[in-house]
Amino acid sequence: MKAAGFEATVHDVTDLQAVKAAHGVPDALQSCHTAVVDGYVVEGHVPAADVRRLLAERPRAKGLSAPGMPPSSPGMDIPGTPYEVVLFGAPGGDRVWARH
Questions:
Q1: Could you tell me the residue ranges of all domains in the chain?
Q2: Is beta strand 95-99 parallel, antiparallel or unpaired with respect to 34-37?
Q3: Are 28 and 44 in contact (CB under 8 A)?
Q4: CA 91, CA 88: separation in Å to the nearest integer?
């Protein structure tokens, strides 16, 4: 995210589950990292372009998740495995935000 122009402050915590619970990340959408960006939660290896779109469109939702650890997501960089980024916590329910 830093390489994509985002400012980032890293907080090492011992109980990541408590952080996810505090930010309303559903169990099925959890991943390895949890971030908060301008009031939204970003869970896992969500591409920077999806975060920029989220911040531009500002939907009523808790945030975005790339559930699990998709091998072809940014930072994993093992091509060939399609994955989805999910918008979660929206009034109409969770939905696919992007397919990669």
A1: 16-99
A2: unpaired
A3: no
A4: 9
To the nearest 10°, the Cα dihedral for 92, 22, 71, 95?
Answer: 0
pLDDT at residue 74 in the model: 82
Q: Quick: pLDDT tens for 39-75.
A: 999 999 999 999 999 999 999 999 999 998 888 888 8
DSSP string, 18-86: HHHHHTT--GGG-BS-EEEETTEEEEES--HHHHHHHHHH--SSSEEEE-B--TTSTTT--TT---EEE
22 HSE (CA, 13 A, CB side): 9
Burial of 94 (0-12, 13-18, 19+ CB in 10 A): middle
- CB proximity list for 90: less than 8 A, separation 6 or greater: 59, 60, 61, 62
CB contact at 8 A, 39 and 81: no
